[in-house]
Design a protein that fits this description.
123 residues; 7-stranded mixed beta sheet; 4-stranded antiparallel beta sheet; 63% strand; elongated
Length: 123
């Protein structure tokens, strides 16, 4: 069993900052790519940022220059530092991870999603 536990969401004023965290735990052999996605009311889930185990990153155009994704491989944790927040950043943010988990037959791939954390940007 592998799970992702997110934290750090909340209410912030426009121009403010928040930091999201997501920790993977369970029968993990290795955590590969980790990322953040978001879903605003009435919209589809979209990519925010991803980071590989080697540290390569990719961002949605809408957050470039404002958000920074990072990770601590020793803790199987990914972070999302969000600065200069805008009302349009309001959404439920979901953590995602591509994991190699221990199985009864050895090791197998698994994609895991967190439960989501709400970020509200409003004055």
């Amino acid at each position: 069993q592998v799970q992702l536990v997110e934290s750090g969401g909340g209410l912030v004023q426009p121009g403010g900052s928040l930091r999201l965290s997501c920790a993977a735990s369970g029968s993990i052999f290795r955590v590969n790519t980790m990322g953040w996605y978001r879903q605003a009311p009435g919209k589809q889930r979209e990519l925010v940022a991803v980071i590989t185990s080697g540290g390569s990153t990719n961002y949605a155009d809408s957050v470039k220059g404002r958000f920074t994704i990072s990770r601590d491989n020793a803790k199987n944790t990914v972070y999302l530092q969000m600065n200069s927040l805008k009302p349009e950043d309001t959404a439920v943010y979901y953590c995602n991870a591509e994991i190699l988990q221990f199985t009864t037959k050895g090791v197998g791939p698994l994609e895991v999603w967190g439960q989501g954390t709400l970020v509200t940007v409003s004055s």
